[in-house]
Amino acid sequence: MPNIVVVGAQWGDEGKGKIIDILASDANYIVRYQGGSNAGHTVVLKGKEFILHLIPSGILHRGKVCIIGNGVAFDPMAFLEEVETLKSKGIDVTKRNLVLSEKAHVIFPYHKKLDSLREAKKGTTTIGTTKRGIGPCYADKVSRCGIRVLDLMDSKNLREKLKFNIKEKNTLFKYLYNSDGVSFDEIYAQYRDYANQIRPFVGNTTIILNEAIKKNKRILFEGAQGTLLDIDHGTYPFVTSSSATSGGACIGTGIGPTHIDKVIGVVKAYTTRVGEGPFPTEFPSDLINKIRNRGKEFGATTGRPRRCGWFDSIVVKHSVLVNAIDEIAVTKLDVLDQMPKINICVGYKYRNKVYKFFPPDINVLNECRPIYQAHPGWLKDTNQIKKFEDLPYNAKRYLNTLKKLLGVKITIISVGSERGQIIRWGAKK
Ligand code: IMP
Fold first, then answer.
1. What's the gap in Å between 134 CA and the centre of ligand 1?
2. pLDDT value of position 389
3. Does 282 show up as a binding residue in the annotation?
4. Which pathway does the UniProt entry assign to this protein (predicted)?
């Protein structure tokens, strides 16, 4: 297996956790490169559900090294909680199988507070963030006042940087948001304590990964969120604050682009979105509950109900383009099992024009009406099927249509939450 990047090709929640879990068995290193604890990657093993927010999904496999790269917005509290939860479920988590980049930026309580206050102030233009402090943390990084893991390890550095940041943030809280400030003493003491607990995991992950590449080790890069939430290529401003596309794997780890051999895009057999922003193929209200309940479409991080809609080939074609996707994994095909008719969006109608590509202007997107191609449903259970040939005729037809529209082969089809509920399409017999 070469070095593979797995990206979400819709608005996140495509089922990347399960796909990573499957591919992880062939990898030596599994690496998160962006996002933070806003992500929620679900893996189900023998009926036990694991939801991973910061730690790569590969942690569930023995003998693998998991890496949290420099591009991740690192929340020490969430991290330590996750380590404890995994240990309590019998998963081994030590400095030998988990390394955190010293260059990752750290989330502080003032980032979370600012995230919430800013959202509340925005009123109708709210983004619907996860309120995990992601945007404010990345904003500090780009403003060059962020605090990195390596600063956390040095009490003098931490004191100086934290003093400056808290003074600035408290001014904002008081004068702009009419809210109480945060306490330097409390945060400093709390983060000194976190630093001591985190220290064993900290390392130079850029060197570790580049050394691994030299030794021909296999690396799996685990993207979080999805392409349409990418800060540059998504439905800006209704996006997250990191590079969720395949290019983010280089920036968020310090490996060069020539070391990436393959990009796998993960899509649901339909579409979902959490939070605000345009969603051209969103279902009318009568269909939403049917799919939401069957697909358990509630956020793994916030529990919020997800918005649901038909598969949008314009969205995924955009993702194929900006990520250079080589192969597609389709998840949750079984959720459509009872649908008598299934639509695929094949274009947008905007005033007198027809769009065959994804428009970057959300004002245009808000006015776009989807053009649908209707497909007959298969009305049969698919969740025990192991081979493509055994799928109902109309399910095969649906997948073949997606493949043709996207111009990319589909290699993995997931028909249930368990590890074994998977079909490899085109795999050598
Ligand atoms: P933030 O990342 O918390 O700033 O949220 C920005 C937008 O991205 C909101 O619409 C969130 O709902 C969405 N978002 C963030 N993380 C995820 C995710 O892991 N899955 C799906 N949506 C996400």
1. 9
2. 97
3. no
4. Purine metabolism; AMP biosynthesis via de novo pathway; AMP from IMP: step 1/2
- What crossing angle do the helices spanning 393-406 and 313-323 adopt, rounded to 10°? 50
**Residues 109-147 as b or e (16 or more Cβ within 10 Å = b):** bbbbbbbbbbbeeeeeeebbbbbbbbbbbbebbeeeebb
* Cβ of 297 below 6 Å from ligand 1: no
The mean pLDDT value for 179-189 works out to 98
Domains annotated on the chain, with CATH? 4-101+202-263 (3.40.440.10), 105-198 (1.10.300.10), 267-424 (3.90.170.10)
Q: Cα 12–17–20 angle (5° rounding)? A: 115
Verify whether ligand 1 is closer than 6 Å to residue 12 (CB atom). Answer: yes
Q: Which residue, judged by its Cα, is nearest atom 5 of ligand 1?
A: 129
Q: What pTM was estimated for this model as a whole?
A: 0.96
Q: Please state, rounded to an integer, the average pLDDT across all residues of the chain.
A: 96
**48 assigned ligand-binding residue:** no
DSSP per-residue string spanning 242-286 = S--STTHHHHTTT--GGG--EEEEEEESSEEE-SSS--TTBPPHH
Nearest C-alpha neighbor of 331 from the set 280, 270, 376, 277: 270
- Please tell me the distance between residue 63's alpha carbon and the centre of ligand 1 in angstroms: 31
260-317 tens-digit pLDDT: 999 999 999 999 999 999 999 999 888 888 899 999 999 888 889 999 999 999 999 9
- Which of 54, 129, 236 has most ligand 1 atoms within 8 Å of its beta carbon, as the pocket-test mutant? 129
Catalytic residues: 13, 41, 141
Q: What is the C-alpha separation between 115 and 135, in angstroms, rounded?
A: 7
Residue 429 pLDDT class (50, 70, 90 cuts) = low
pLDDT range class, residue 10, cuts 50, 70, 90: very high
Cα of 392 to ligand 1 centre, how many Å?
Answer: 35
Decide: 230 and 243 in contact? Cβ < 8 Å. yes
- CA atoms of 76 and 194, how far apart (whole Å): 6
